[in-house]
Amino acid sequence: MEEQKKFCNGCKEEKDVIEIERDAQGVTFKLSCGHKIIEDEFTAVINVFNQLNDKVQRPGFKKPIIEGMERTKISGKTKRPTRESILVDRENQKYVHKVWEQNENGEWELEHEEEIPLSHKGKECLISKEEKCPKCGSINVEKTGGSHKLQAQVWHHGFKCIGCDTYFWITESNLKP
User: What is the rounded distance in angstroms from the CA atom of residue 55 to the CA atom of residue 61?
Assistant: First the structure.
């Protein structure tokens, strides 16, 4: 056996290796000073996830017309790579959510797709009813900013009809049947 030397951190100098033991944890070197050096190897898998957020703004308006988010993640149920896409389109009044999951062959399969009409409150409250003017029946209305909570889970919202300039209120409950 050829003579090996290792640097001993305890003695702060190079020492002769007396014995080498190999096991499942790695390699142990016994030095002439009585100290041991254990060399271990390990491998780790590092997952990289990304998320992209984008917004389309309108001059003079606080909220963007379109908001989108795309991200990769690991599925909570199957523990497989997943791509998720969320689109909030305030101009066309819709919320689109799609989820793709990678199968055993590495191909992406669409697992979930939903398109829900947006309410006037944005993606926080997704309701299917449309606001209509009680005078002319037009759905071309805009929120006036007058919203307040009447009681638990009930909201009162102010609207203005673009067609006939009528102001009206809608009371809505967020409770699901």
Answer: 13
First to last CA, the chain: 80
pLDDT digits (tens, 9 = 90+) for 47-88: 788 889 999 888 877 888 889 999 998 888 888 899 999 998
| pTM of the predicted protein model | 0.46
Pairing of strands 5-8, 26-31: unpaired
